[in-house]
Amino acid sequence: MKLAARIEQVSPSLTLAIAAKAKAMKADGIDVCSFSAGEPDFDTPDHIKAAAHAALDQGKTRYGPAAGEPKLREAIARKLQDDNGLCYGMDNVIVTNGGKQSLFNLMLALIEPGDEVLIPVPYWLSYPEMVKLAGGKPVLLPTTVEDSFKITADQLRQAVTPSTKLFIFNSPSNPTGMVYTPDEVRAIADVLVEKNLWVVADEIYEKILYDGAKHLSIGAAGPEIYERTITSSGFAKTYAMTGWRVGFLAGPSQIIQAVTTIQSHSTSNVCTFAQYGAIAAYEGSQDCVKTMVGAFAERREAMYNHLSSIPGLTCPKPYGAFYMFANISKLGIPSLDFCNDLLDGHQVAAVPGVAFGADDAVRFSYATDMDTINKGMERLSAFVRSL
Ligand code: GLU
Predict the structure, then answer these.
(1) For residue 81, how many other CB atoms are within 10 A of its CB?
(2) Taking the domain 48-283, which CATH number applies?
(3) Phi and psi angles of residue 64, each rounded to the nearest 5 degrees, phi first
(4) Ligand 1: residues whose CB is within 6 Å?
(5) Which of 310, 357, 345, 301 is nearest to 330 (CA)?
(6) Which of ligand 1's atoms lies nearest the C-alpha of 242?
(7) Measuring CA to CA, how many Å separate 319 from each of 135, 306, 307, 364?
(8) Taking the C-alpha atoms of 221, 222, 227 and 231 in order, what is their torsion angle to the nearest 10 degrees?
(9) Is the four-CA dihedral 12, 18, 20, 24 of positive or negative sign?
């Protein structure tokens, strides 16, 4: 069969594939320690589930507006004002099937064939594939561990060509866990304004910060960058709502309208009663977030101590999200082989860095319980010693 050319240049999501393989092995009774998908192991907080139950009971089971329930869009706009200093009304917000769909829709709305999209490496693996599916050209900006995996404002300036349309900015970062300081964010914003570019800020991990790290939304860095920013986020990581598929995009109303048109022809609205759970997430107590971030902080210490003690691995300490990005270059083995052997031989699932544009590293998610971390890291240590 001849498939469309657009699909031939795109790979399936390796994070989802490895997570599915680990789950299938577990279902077969194999004792797998999974550090694969970035999925909090907590259950969704009760008050959020109760709000979705109540919405079901009240008959919120029908089609709604393609852009999302007005009450949720208002709650998102309020949150963006209060937490992020971004001034939006509900016409500036669309509710999407997770942060992933918000980014995908945006690429379709903004990118034309030949447009270049700047993406720092290591990147979340879906960014370049989404750009390609929209007909654009991903342009990768390399970073090093010595630079804490962050690009500089000068590097960004030098990468801009007449075809550059958009910059994808993800802080805190998946897969490295690095966080740009407010000064670094402002320096990048200045270049984007100077070069008249759009920026999409993927802020899905903004609440998961450690050691006093500060998050500044790039759209709040000044009035000129505000006009060129589209912010993408969602409920999955902060409120342990991965399976609910509720995310959003916020930005200039013309772009939000275009994205809404795309959504009206693809998925229509996000599951109506799930949106009522999301309203409760923003309007209810935020203590659940504190509790979960506190647990991630303890797990981060534990995993970092384990990884740092394994000869041959080096790992910068992350300041946000829930990933460790360990360098394996001293071991002389490609990341895909490393992860396959680790899973098949030692029942530990991790994601090869090659999926994120860095074949000399492996990503370990610590959004899992402490027993799994201790056991899995012991197995990892035995595996590395055996190489
Ligand atoms: N974003 C998460 C991760 O990187 C979930 C999997 C995915 O959507 O790729 O693990």
Answers:
(1) 14
(2) 3.40.640.10
(3) -125, -175
(4) 13, 15-16, 37-38, 100, 124, 126, 174
(5) 310
(6) 5
(7) 34, 17, 16, 15
(8) 20
(9) positive
Topology at the third CATH level for domain 5-44+287-386? Aspartate Aminotransferase, domain 1 (3.90.1150)
Atom number, ligand 1, closest to the C-alpha of residue 126: 9
Which residues 6+ apart lie within 8 Å of 182 measured at CB?
A: 214, 216
In tens, the pLDDT along 320-371 reads 999 999 999 999 999 999 999 999 999 999 999 999 999 999 999 999 999 9
Sheet with strand 361-365: strands edge to edge: 323-327, 361-365, 351-352
In angstroms, the CA 182 to CA 212 distance is: 12
Distance from the Cα of residue 292 to its chain's centroid: 17
Q: How is residue 33 written in tokens?
A: 């320690």
CB atoms within 10 A of CB 302: 14
Long-range pairs for 73-82: beta carbons < 8 A, 24 or more residues apart: 73/248, 75/278, 75/279, 75/282, 75/283, 76/248, 76/250, 76/282, 77/250, 78/282, 79/282, 80/217, 80/231, 80/250
CA 283 – ligand 1 centroid, Å: 26
The per-residue pLDDT for range 242-287, each reduced to its tens digit, is 999 999 999 999 999 999 999 999 999 999 999 999 999 999 999 9
- Are 207 and 354 spatial neighbours (Cβ–Cβ below 8 Å)? no
DSSP for 343-361? Answer: HHHH-EE-EEGGGGT-TTE
Instruction: Give yes or no on whether 5-44+287-386 and 48-283 have one common fold.
Output: no
